[in-house]
Amino acid sequence: MFCKWVDRLVTLISELKQPSPRAVNFLALGSTLLSTTPEYADENEVDGTSTSIEPDAVCVLEGEADGFGSWSQVLVPVKFKRKPTSLLAQEALEALTWNPSSSQTPSTTKRSRTPTQKSDPSAEKANSPDRILCRASPAATPPSPTSPSAYKPTWDDIQLARYAMETLAAFGDRTHVFGLVVNRPEVTLWHFDRFGAVRSQPLNVEGPQGQGFLSFVKFLSALVYIQDDALGFNPFFAASTGIKRVGMRKDLCDISIKISEPGDASLTLKRLLDRRTGLVGCATLVYKAHLWCHGEGNGVPVDAVLKSSWQHVHRTSEYDILQKLHMHSEAIQHVVGVFYRKEGFTVSSQRGKFGEPKPEVVDERALRYTVAEYLSPITKLSQPFHIPHIGWSVLQAIKFLRGAGWFHRDISVGNIGFQLVPNCQGVIVKLLDFDLSKEIVSSSKAPHGTGTLPFMSIELLEVPEVVHKLGFEVEALMWTLLWIVRVYVDGQEEYDGDHPLINWFSNYRTVENVAYTKMAYLQRARGFTNDWYRELELQMRSLARTWHEMRKDQCKMRFQAEDDYLVSDSM
Q1: Protein kinase domain: from which residue to which, for each copy (predicted)?
Q2: Residue 150 has what pLDDT?
Q3: How far, in Å, are 119, 366, 438 from residue 315 at the CA level?
């Protein structure tokens, strides 16, 4: 009944002003199951990371109503109020905060990154009781229950957030999405972005002369008349012809993007490489693309990567970092090349369109685009004799970065790539993804993360606030090599519930647990490689034992100094 009533309102609104950019329908779905967006690793979908959920209702374009069956067709998800269950709501909130699939399939290009700083509780306050900031972030300290802006999400709110997360993930280019929680006679409007959510006060929509009804009509009018970008469709991914979107895209492959500088350069997106499907975070989206330096169709395209990511505005952009590094001639041997950048929306500018004149955003983020050279996944160097070359090459890259005054801070399987050397069948191994990099002498106040869980130094897992050390970079490389020789078979990830490294992800929400299980792994007597890499078993065993002995020496120093967090020079 609600959907039919809203459809009649939309019809009346559409007749008030002509022409309207879009016609929409509200669909009650009942038991319709929609498949969720899968995770990606090594440029492929990860099996078993897609499931199905049943949204209560959705708003779609009129032309999509008859053939509806995908999250990529959703404009606005709708949740009808059920009985409140505070405990279930809290569990669901944690599930949205931490990627639920990672504990089952820790994909190599997209594992959970752990934050290192906590927010000030006072920073959670919004500007007024009407504008409540809800952050589903593991780094956030919840507002005090006595605060006027404190709001405890209900089970229905969390379910709506899940619908919004799937709507954002299905396209990848959506910057935000609106949602509705219906508890007749009230409707609550929600605005979800990559930083959390903002909600309105419940609107009583059954009084035709009431303010709540008028506010709801304004919202419906916006659905019909506002531009695509205000609905969260990123104009950066608009067709190069400038033609407005005429329907809902299933993906972004094969679209062409004009790059304003330099000259007539453009990109043609060819293949999705990585997509972060969580609601809160960087929402990194990575496509392999053809870069046409002189316009599409002119000359030979260069293989490139387009990455969009929501980054803290006070953090130096990846493009700027790579530009500085490439001022050194030897950088081309160790560090991914970079071509282009663009700074997009900020969280506050997007939330301002929701009706908040001066939205208060803690740790403001901006959507940044980087075009870099394409590197093949390091796991494609799959022969045992490749492993020493990978290790030596990354050590040289670490040495180069140190000389240039930088730490990478996120060395992992997904952040190492290679390119072929023409005419000699050789390869050059390079580091990529410098989003978390930091100058060694920097005193940046940005809330930096410090790595990817399976590859982080044990010290960083134990004490995230510890000052970053050179040894942490080397230890991350060690864990990366140990991971490859135990998890990969001829370039393909083989990982199941009986795998010995599954312990790195048991109760992985507690990073100390990961540290303990990794320390125990170093003490294994054997079994550091699988059958594919068995000829490296002795070398990998020696590597693990050497690191274990260094840790034992460090423990002795800690006992003597009565300092549980001392980091020895050797480590």
Answers
A1: 269-571
A2: 63
A3: 16, 10, 9
Q: Name beta bridge partners: 28.
A: 57
The sign of the CA dihedral 195, 200, 205, 211 is negative
Residue 81 located in a structural domain: yes
Give the pairing of strands 74-80 and 176-183.
parallel
Domain count, the chain: 1
State which residues form the domain around 106. Answer: 2-235
Task: State if pTM tops 0.85.
Answer: no
- Judge whether 260 lies within some domain: no
Distance between CA atoms of residues 418 and 32, nearest Å: 44
Query: Residue 347 burial (CB < 10 Å; 0-12/13-18/19+)?
Result: buried
Longest dimension (CA), the chain: 80
Asked if residue 119 has pLDDT above 60, the reply is no
Q: In this structure, is residue 384 part of a structural domain?
A: no
Q: Phi, psi at residue 421, to the nearest 5°?
A: -95, 120
Summarised one tens digit per residue, pLDDT across range 208-263 is 678 899 999 999 998 888 888 888 888 787 644 344 444 556 677 878 887 766 57
Q: What's the pLDDT tens digit per position in 507-533?
A: 666 788 888 889 889 998 899 999 999
pLDDT of 165-215, one tens digit each?
888 888 777 888 999 999 988 999 999 987 788 888 899 988 767 889 999
Return d(Cα 364, Cα 114) in angstroms, integer. Answer: 18
Per the domain annotation, does 409 fall within a domain?
no
List helix spans (H) across 230-375: 318-325, 347-352
Please say whether the beta carbons of 24 and 75 come within 8 A.
yes
What is d(CA 562, CA 254) in angstroms, rounded to the nearest whole number? 60
Q: Is the model more confident about 139 or about 1? A: 1
pLDDT band at 390 (very low <50, low <70, confident <90, very high): very high
Tokens linked to 500:
């010995």
As given in the structure block, the two tokens for residue 490 are 């001829």
